[in-house]
Specification:
- The structure holds two protein chains of two kinds.
- Chain A is α+β, with helices and mostly antiparallel strands.
- Chain A is built from twelve helices and 31 strands.
- In chain A, strands 21, 23, 24, 25, 26, 28 and 29 form a seven-stranded mixed sheet that branches. In chain A, strands 10, 12, 14, 15 and 16 form a five-stranded antiparallel sheet that branches.
- Chain B is an alpha+beta fold.
- Chain B is globular.
- In chain B, strand 3 and strand 4 form a beta hairpin.
- In chain B, the strands form two sheets. Chain B has a five-stranded antiparallel sheet. A two-stranded antiparallel sheet of chain B has the order 3-4.
- Classes of the chains: A alpha+beta, B alpha+beta.
- At the A-B interface, strand 31 and helix 7 of A face helix 1, helix 2, strand 1, helix 4 and helix 6 of B.
- Strand 31 of chain A pairs antiparallel with strand 1 of chain B.
Chain lengths: ~625, ~250
């Protein structure tokens, strides 16, 4: 109120300043509420803007209303960006004479030869249920001319809810995932709110929330809702970025307001004293803290389009720019250079991701230093992300840093955009006495390997082996070792055999008996074929006796049929074979010792008999 | 005469057993090589791995597989396959070179503590040949020893005996040495306590349970020794002696 008084002084001063540009004249009318009871008083207000000298405004005319008090006037002057804006409000208190839908006729003024008129205002008047007397609530209009219309104490308490309300406003209810959505929480009130405080910021599941800073003094604008003039202050603005798709809800915001109480005045002796407009001022009225909350909002979040999505896209939505810079184009080997990428713009700065660097492996790259900077002071979320890479080229030559690509989705154009940074060429001069690798943990040998490529694949078909097989599971290994063992056993046996033949005479005689007799038989064969003399019979006799003696280990001297028979018998040999041997030997003895006495058989027959006998004997002895 | 013929037969049989060709495996291998040469590395990997899936392998196969993984930048698989190739071909210069090169890409640079020189020599000696190589050498030396001994036992030429005695003695001593090296190498090769870290960054914990104290970090491609296992966890040891527990899925045995 005191502020308004100040304004009127400023108005007076500024009216003296001539030459302000002519402005559009706005002329409008409003009522403080459009649903009233027949006992209520209505405040009808006419606002003129854009004029410097205010014309006379006639009172409202309507057959259904009676004028109770007024006019009361207030003027204000604002200078915005060097432009002066003056306005004047004139209000009347009027009371309905009947119930129903009543219309207040337009008010017209003439200004610089032009006629301006307000729109007609329609008010619904209902029958009052309470038997409240109108006369009691009617108070004289404030005397001060610059005083604006006050909410009179007569206004019903149950209308107060409509007097103050909080509204969440969004420009659209369908957004893309990651798109910025600005939500304003506007408090509508009618001069009856002194202060307000944010009690609870809205929660929004599935959104990244960025708050805008509240300005120290909120700008208050006038707005007419359903014909009722309200004053509007934006309590809070937030920017939301959906992180998932689907139907999402923004929870209500809660605001505490100090609302002026228009309680019934007590009647006392001091009433006359207190019944003064000065004490009618809200500063002296009691107030009460009340809580208001906005309606929850439902937002549909669309997924980003699939087609046309670049491969380098990583979720950035908004409008962005990229910049790249390098601190030097000429560097010595093993020295560090700094490569900077900066993405700036408006949108979901938090989701920005730089595509990885594609550098030759002769360059050592350190993890980038990331610097995020979010600016929320300009009504939209702007900001920049800076990536600072430190590179150390490990080899001399021309180093090419390829262009990096960054893709984002532009929700306004509904299209993907791809930005490319410029590529850099850096000349790396060699460092002859380089103590390379000391800082990087690489040995000199490893440094020399950097920049080399792996050796090519082998193309000859290899020998396939069962996976997990070892040499111990393979046949050839055991076969070869078994062969070695066999050779060893064979050689040892051979040696043992020859040793025994050399050292054991009886054994040697027995082993050699058969080959000896065979060679003798061959000689006898030759003799029998030729002229077989007495010698043949002797030889045959000796061959037979020699064989038996060798096999039975008997001394050769004086060995004849009589000695052989018991020896053979002791060995348990078949009597038939024994008698055959003895008979043959006796026969041979007869031929040898009684020549001409016995008819000599043919040598060949005797040889055959002897051979048969030897074959039989070899089986038993 | 008889002995010579049986030796020839044995050699033929052994040769036949080793070089048993499998045309299907060769076909897959050749296709893998073609894919590699036309820079279709993932297809080459698929073909090479299909040979492994069939239950066959070879040092060369793992070498080529390692190359293909190197090309697509999978450092863990690269190191794993080169290590497998190195196990089968310990003296192949190409395998050694590529392994060294691939190890440059491993993030963990662990300082190897110095090893006592005799032990280093011993390790070098053991690694001269693969277990199979040592086995072949052992079998050959054994046969030589035994044959010269057999002749020595039964033949009585003075000059020959002197020569054979030398051969037998040297071959016998060498055979014993080779047998020792074979046992060591065989043990090294069949030991399943060597592994390679497969995941980008793995934190090594003090106890085999999630949420216990983090001791150190290991990165993809680092070679570790596996000391112990506990259901889903492996206790690993780095070359510098640091020990900790990591999830079983993050380490693959060589």
């Amino acid at each position: 109120m005191s502020g308004l008084r100040k304004y009127s002084l400023i108005l007076f001063l500024t009216l003296l300043i001539a030459g302000a540009a002519a402005q559009d004249v706005r002329f409008s009318a409003s009522v403080n509420k459009n649903v009233i009871s027949d006992k209520d008083i209505l405040v009808y207000t006419v606002t003129i803007e854009g004029v410097r000298d205010f014309p006379d405004v006639p009172p409202p005319e309507s057959p259904d209303f009676v004028l109770i008090s007024g006019p009361s006037q207030s003027s204000s002057i604002q200078i915005i960006n060097g432009q002066m804006n003056a306005s004047k409000t004139i209000s009347w208190q009027i009371a309905p004479t009947r119930t129903g839908k009543l219309t207040i006729n337009p008010v017209s003024i003439k200004y610089h030869g032009k006629t301006y008129s307000t729109e007609a205002v329609t008010v619904t008047v209902t029958t009052s249920v309470s038997g409240q007397s109108r006369s009691q609530t009617r108070t004289p209009a404030p005397a001060q001319p610059a005083q604006p219309a006050q909410p009179t104490p007569g206004q019903n308490a149950d209308n107060r809810k409509g007097d103050v309300f909080l509204k969440a406003v969004v420009p659209q209810t369908t957004v893309y995932k990651g798109e910025e959505l600005i939500v304003s929480f506007d408090l509508y009130f009618r001069n009856n709110v002194r202060t307000y405080g944010r009690k609870k910021l809205p929660d929004a599941q599935g959104f990244w929330i960025e708050e805008f800073p509240a300005s120290g003094q909120p700008t208050i604008t006038n707005e007419t809702v359903n014909g009722v003039a309200y004053r509007k202050a934006t309590v809070q603005q937030i920017a939301l970025f959906a992180t998932k798709t689907g139907e999402l809800t923004i929870d209500p915001m809660v605001v505490d307001c100090e609302v002026v109480q228009t309680n019934q005045r007590r009647r006392s002796v001091f009433d006359d004293f207190f019944d003064d407009s000065f004490f009618n001022d809200p500063l002296f009225q009691s107030s009460k803290v009340m809580t208001f909350q906005s309606e929850p909002l439902r937002i549909r979040v669309k997924p980003l389009p699939e087609n046309g999505q670049p491969s380098s896209f990583s979720g950035a939505v908004g409008q962005f720019n990229t910049e790249s810079s390098i601190d030097t184009q000429q560097i010595q080997q093993d020295q560090a250079l700094t490569l900077r990428y900066k993405i700036s713009g408006s949108g979901n700065i938090n989701s920005l991701k730089m595509p990885p660097l594609d550098l030759p492996n002769s360059v050592e790259v350190f993890e980038p230093k990331i610097n995020k900077n979010i600016d929320n002071s300009r009504g939209t979320i702007r900001g920049s992300v800076t990536y600072e890479y430190v590179l150390i080229p490990r080899r001399p030559g021309l180093l090419t840093i390829p262009a990096a690509t960054f893709a984002y989705f532009d929700p306004k154009a509904e299209a993907y955009r791809t930005l490319s940074t410029r590529s850099f060429k850096v000349r790396v001069s060699s460092n002859d006495n380089s103590q390379a690798g000391q800082g990087a943990g690489l040995s000199k040998e490893e440094i020399s390997l950097l920049g080399q490529d792996i050796r090519f694949i082998v193309r000859e078909n290899p020998v396939w082996r069962q996976a997990g097989s070892t040499v111990l599971g393979e046949f050839w290994f055991w076969l070869t070792n078994a062969l070695s063992l066999l050779v060893l056993i064979g050689a040892a046996s051979l040696r043992w055999w020859t040793d025994k033949l050399e050292t054991n005479l009886a054994f040697a005689r027995r082993r050699k008996a058969w080959p000896k007799v065979q060679s003798r038989l061959r000689t006898l064969q030759e003799m029998a074929a030729g002229e077989a003399g007495m010698d043949f019979y002797t030889q045959l006799d000796q061959a037979l006796i020699g064989y038996v003696a060798d096999r039975l280990t008997l001394p050769l001297a004086g060995l004849g049929p009589k000695e052989i028979e018991p020896a053979l018998r002791r060995r348990g040999i078949d009597t038939e074979v024994i008698s055959k041997v003895v008979n043959l030997l006796v026969r041979l003895d007869e031929i040898r010792f009684l020549p001409g006495m016995v008819a000599a058989e043919k040598p060949a027959e005797l040889l055959a008999a002897g051979r048969d006998l030897l074959t039989n004997l070899s089986k038993v002895i | 005469m008889h002995l010579q013929r049986s030796i020839l037969m044995v050699i033929l049989m052994v040769g036949g057993l080793i070089g048993r060709p499998d045309p299907e495996l060769d076909r897959l291998f050749e296709q893998g090589n073609e894919a590699y040469q036309s820079e279709n590395y993932s297809e080459a990997i698929r073909l090479y791995e299909s040979i492994v899936t069939r239950g066959y392998d070879s040092g060369v196969l793992y070498f080529n597989l390692g190359n293909a993984y190197y090309r697509i930048g999978n450092i863990g698989q690269t190191i794993l396959n080169y290590e497998r190739a190195a196990r089968r071909m310990p003296n192949d210069p190409n395998v050694a070179f590529n392994l060294k090169l691939a190890n440059l890409g491993v993030k963990d640079k662990i300082d190897v503590p110095p090893v006592f020189f005799l032990f280093r020599w011993y390790q070098g000696g053991v690694n001269l040949l693969s277990a199979r190589g040592w086995a072949v050498l052992f079998a050959a030396l054994l046969l030589l020893t035994v044959m010269s001994f057999a002749v020595l036992l039964n033949v009585d030429f003075r000059r020959l005996r002197l020569f054979l005695r030398t051969v037998c003695l040297i071959a016998g001593i060498l055979g014993l040495l080779v047998a020792g090296l074979f046992i060591q190498k065989y043990h090294n090769e069949t030991a399943d306590d060597q592994g390679v870290v497969m995941s980008g960054t793995v934190s090594s914990l003090a106890a085999p349970q999630a949420g216990s104290t983090e001791l150190f970090m290991v990165h993809e491609g680092t070679r570790v020794r596996i000391l112990d296992s506990d259901e889903h966890w492996l206790k690993i040891e780095l070359i510098d002696g640091k020990q900790g527990w990591v999830p079983q899925s993050d380490v693959i045995k060589i």
